[in-house]
Automatic annotation (TrEMBL):
This is Glyoxal reductase. Belongs to the aldo/keto reductase family. Substrate binds at H112. The record marks K79 as: Lowers pKa of active site Tyr. InterPro entries: AKR, AKR5G, Aldo/ket_reductase_CS, NAD(P)_OxRdtase_dom_sf, NADP_OxRdtase_dom. It comes from the Bacteria. The lineage of its organism: Bacteria, Bacillati, Bacillota, Bacilli, Bacillales. Residues 30-261 form the NADP-dependent oxidoreductase domain. PANTHER family: 2,5-DIKETO-D-GLUCONIC ACID REDUCTASE, NADP-DEPENDENT OXIDOREDUCTASE DOMAIN-CONTAINING PROTEIN. The active site is at Y54 (proton donor).
Amino acid sequence: MTKALTESTVLSNGVKMPWLGLGVFKVTEEGLAEKTVKAAIDAGYRHIDTAAAYGNEEGVGAGVKNSGVPRDELFITTKVWNADQGYETSLAAFEKSLSKLDMDYVDLLLIHWPVKGKYKETWRALEDIYKSGKARAVGVSNFQIHHLQDLAEGSGLVPMVNQVEYHPLLSQVELLAYCRANGIQLTAWSPLMQGHLDIPLLAEIGNKYGKTPAQVVLRWDLQNGVITIPKSVTPSRIAENADIFDFELSREDMEKLSSLNQNRRFGSDPDNFNF
């Protein structure tokens, strides 16, 4: 299993996507996104996940530019926001994202949420962006199985990635199995349960391996074949989150962690959101 921060999985179209990335949701304070992205790249991260809705694409782009690491060695994701969904509006929104990032292309472009009556048209725009080469891969975020099935009707292109809330309290077993069977790579947002890590089992397993509860959860993600993008703005925590490649959870510990599932969401429900 994954042994180094630089390791990647290969998406269905052959593009390599690093197993661990930095999420930058809510990193909007002046100059903070740039500083955070640079700190992560300095710590060895090569995968940064942003979105138009996060309001920090400019900062992410500046952090990438000032990192000293060549653009083609990095994996950058952004997303089309709900208000911009639809064919023409998605194309225009994507150009705006590219301009803010100050990049010629992104490595992955996602539909942020499955907006009813809109996401199929948005997907058509993403297919065209993908064909143009301005996104090396395209996918979705917060899509349930029925959304993915709906998307598959009348579309030749299967999403390469589905980014969803995923952690031991929301293990999404059926969705993970569906994605795996259809060549869709699952990615975990909010893997650290918005800081709700005070679960005795996490500490107990962590003590056994000399790791923190956060590191145990992130390792569980990787061993389930799920890419993970923990968010932090603290350089020491960014480094700590990446220190998960020198141990492996036993099968028994993996099962114990999976048994914590309560289908509990800390974020919105993809079948019931109003934004």
